[in-house]
Amino acid sequence: MRAILTGGGTGGHIYPALAIADKIKEMEPDSEILYIGNEVGIEKDIVPAAGYDFKMVPARWLERRKNKLDYFCQLGLTGAVTCGGTAKALAIMKKFKPEAVIGTGGFVCVPVMLAGKLYGAKTFIHEQNAFPGAANRLLSKYVDRIFLGFREAGEYFGCPDKIVNTGNPVRKDFLEITKEEARKTLGIPEDSFTVFSFGGSMGSETINEIAVNLIREINGADGWHLIAGTGSAHYDEIIKELKDSGIEPGENIDIRAYIKDMHVCMNAADVVISRAGALSVAEVTVCGKAAVFVPFPQATGNHQYFNAKAVADAGGAILAGEKDLDAGDVAKKIIALKDDREELAAMSMASLSCSPAGATDRIFSEIRKTLSE
Predict the structure, then answer these.
(1) Virtual torsion, Cα 7, 8, 12, 17, nearest 10 deg
(2) pLDDT 10s per residue in the chain (373 long)?
(3) Interatomic CA distance for residues 196 and 112, integer angstroms
(4) Which long-range contacts (CB under 8 A, 24 or more apart) does 23-28 make?
């Protein structure tokens, strides 16, 4: 298969695309894969490191403005950049000759997917969230198939005949390590109740506040372990806050600015505290972890709330809205789970029942079937 993948801006768009690319190479090792991104997004660093050829095209988001004149100026500028990006992407495709063009979200998808349609390749988009992004809603009318991470997103697309409920693709790293292996790698005792908190590369003040409350309660305590990913922007202030409170983190407290081994930390945990971006929810559930989801309230269409609610409604997570959240209360609920292993096991099973296991297989099969048609 000759395939072009695109998606950018955040890891939530990039890693699903890489998971699809890995599956294509696994199933058809002779496949040729090209990734097209934008210089503004982090894909320019992540994709080459993953071993895939990478090219860039111009792309631009549409800034929302209340002033009509400003809005139309932004619309015109975005339109001009998109036209330029489409032309460049089309030139790339004429040389690469893709059979399939696959987009996973982000503004860079717009020019690349439009170019794929103009070129005549089969086109596919994957929507990770329960509330679709603007780029995918725009592109839905032009593509051959729409893959959904959450079934609930289907109601926002006006083309039900194109929709395939696949779940969200997760990198195979998350499926290839056991809890015991992960704990051995991290040096965590097998019988320790382990909590893993993170708020993305930039971090989350709210999630860090929960982590600090936990540290106050469990620092140095037997049978406990905490891995806290603070985000690079918050690391120094968290360390200072603890120091000012007279707390010297013990051996059971692992505070990090950035989580580089996400799949290891995730599998080592009993409970995960995180935002509810589609990628995080997929990784938590595919590992079968009980969770506390703190949705980012400014997410477009409040989609993180709906992502979290899908798991919470099944019994696999505690949904903690940021507006009225009491970090100390959330910490107490997590502490209570340590002594209620029956409830913890039930949450883990419910979380796993929401997992997208097999998503990449379903996506590959649908792409291959569509190409055969």
Answers:
(1) 30
(2) 999 999 987 788 899 999 999 999 999 999 999 999 998 878 988 999 999 999 999 987 766 656 666 656 666 777 788 899 999 999 999 999 999 999 998 889 999 999 999 999 999 999 998 888 888 988 999 999 999 988 888 888 988 899 999 989 988 889 899 999 999 999 999 999 999 999 876 788 999 999 999 999 999 999 999 999 999 889 999 999 999 999 999 999 999 998 989 999 999 999 999 999 888 999 999 999 999 999 998 877 788 998 899 899 999 999 998 888 899 999 999 999 999 999 999 999 999 998 877 899 999 999 999 999 8
(3) 37
(4) 23/169, 23/360, 23/361, 23/363, 23/364, 24/364, 24/367, 27/364, 27/368, 28/1
Sheet holding 100-103, edge to edge: 53-56, 32-37, 2-6, 100-103, 122-127, 145-148, 163-165
Q: Cα(329)–Cα(316) distance, rounded to whole angstroms?
A: 19
CA-to-CA distance for 49 and 12, rounded, in angstroms? 17
Token readout for 194 is: 């382990």
Contact assessment for residue 243 and residue 316, using Cβ atoms and an 8 Å cutoff:
no
Longest Cα pair distance anywhere in the chain, in angstroms?
A: 67
d(CA 153, CA 105): 14
- Identify the H or E element spanning 273: strand 271-274
Q: How far is CA 25 from its chain centroid?
A: 21
Cα 89 from chain centroid? Answer: 25
CA atoms within 13 A on the CB side of 179: 16
pTM: 0.81
Cα 302 from chain centroid?
15
CA 229 – CA 274 distance, rounded (Å): 10
Task: Give the burial string for 150-171 (b: 16+ CB within 10 Å, else e).
Answer: bebbbebbeeeebbbbbbbbbb
For the record, the structure tokens of 82 come out as 């998109």
How deeply is 341 buried, as exposed, middle or buried, from its count of CB atoms within 10 A (0-12, 13-18, 19+)? exposed
Residue 216 to residue 247: CA distance in whole angstroms: 8
